[in-house]
Amino acid sequence: MGNPAYEKLLEKPAQQLAAIVESSDDAILTKDLRGVILSWNRGAERLFGYKAEEVIGKPVTVLIPPDREAEEPRILRLIGSGEKVDHLETVRCRKDGTLVDISLSVTPIRDERGRVVGATKVARDITERRHNRQQRDLLVQTDQRLAAIVESSEDAILSKDLNGIIRSWNSGAERLFGYKADEVVGQPVYILIPEDRHDEEPGILARLARGERIEHYETVRRRKDGTLIDISLSVSPVRDASGRVIGAAKIARDITERRRVQQQQNLLLREMNHRIKNLFALASGLVTLSARSAATPQELASSVRKRLGALARAHELTLTDLSEPDARLDRATTLSDLIPTIVSPFLDGETSHRERMTLSGPPVGIGSNAVTHVALLISELATNAAKYGALSVPNGRLAITWSVAVDRLRMKWEERGGPPVRETDAEGFGSVLARVTVTEQLGGEMKRVWNPEGLIVEILIQLDRLRS
User: Fold this and answer.
1) Nearest alpha-carbon partner for 382 in 331, 345, 352
2) What is the pTM (predicted TM-score) of this model?
3) pLDDT by residue (tens digit) across 30-89?
4) Domains in the chain with CATH codes
């Protein structure tokens, strides 16, 4: 059996929504199309320090620092045309004059004829101290306005009773989880929870029954189609008019993209760290190589300058300019031009480049999207050869051959004359980076053959990826 008090609350949906909003942690306010504040919840009072009677009827610019004043006219224009503002990261001013970093969502409010008559604002504290707090509080002066706020939210907002039975479900929840309201209302919330996460729910329900809020935490939930999604979840107790806890409000936000970006950033940072260390080691190695053939300090300086210049040109090809999104569009080249550019800084000047490195293969173009990946691959192979293989000694030789068959490029990197080769299963970050580049970015395969005479690396790359 359900909770009678909760069932009674459900008889008036607007009251239920009002309870959800009032119990939330985030700052929720409404304003008209002139920017005048019409409503103000407890979350807004906590975040900005103003009580409702201090701000209702005043322009929302009381919260906006002088250097952000241009934002409000733009937001009002967007709202007036029926558009939303999704999760804008900005800065607002508290009553005591301190500034707070917030994530701001603004949604138009429409009357029964569909006209835009105002806007709801949801502000979330995203300072480091409250960085993980995520909860959607929706508060307006009338029950109908509260219902409109919840329904227009981009986040998934649902409520459940203390038995874990879903009692309300907004359109954001439908978009996030794939279920329509009539498919989940009355069902246990476990339908959204993967089996390996079922132990989370009893603890949540126990804390809610004690009136505790559940701080925002990152977890995994399951969509209707069975796929899993990373979310940030906030849970707040819902109370009836007498203050008794009768259920809970949950706000879920999709953080899949944020997780993906964080993983990419971590990989990029590791790559940069790895490659900066390599550059210092290679610079030292280039000085040593140049000293072997230099007769005077002037010759040594000239040789080192030339090699460092070549190394810089190779380095440019293997790193994307993050400040210029379109910088790679003009980087299309050919394999026979790219390889010498990357490998030449690693070659000893006592013998000609042609004697130390041979290239053989048909003309193969490399598209602007693939050139950075191919350059990175060649750079990692050359770096390892210069540190441990054929390019680490004066008499080492390198042969690079390639051929095209149907839809693939087959390339062989073959070293000879270097130090004795010892097979190992261990992979340093550079080797992992090269392998991931081939398999994930170029859709191919890579295999190392540990011949006593020297390392051989066999690489297959999909032509459509190479030419893109």
Assistant:
1) 345
2) 0.39
3) 888 898 998 888 889 999 999 989 999 999 999 999 998 898 899 999 998 999 998 888
4) 26-132 (3.30.450.20), 143-254 (3.30.450.20), 259-466 (3.30.565.10)
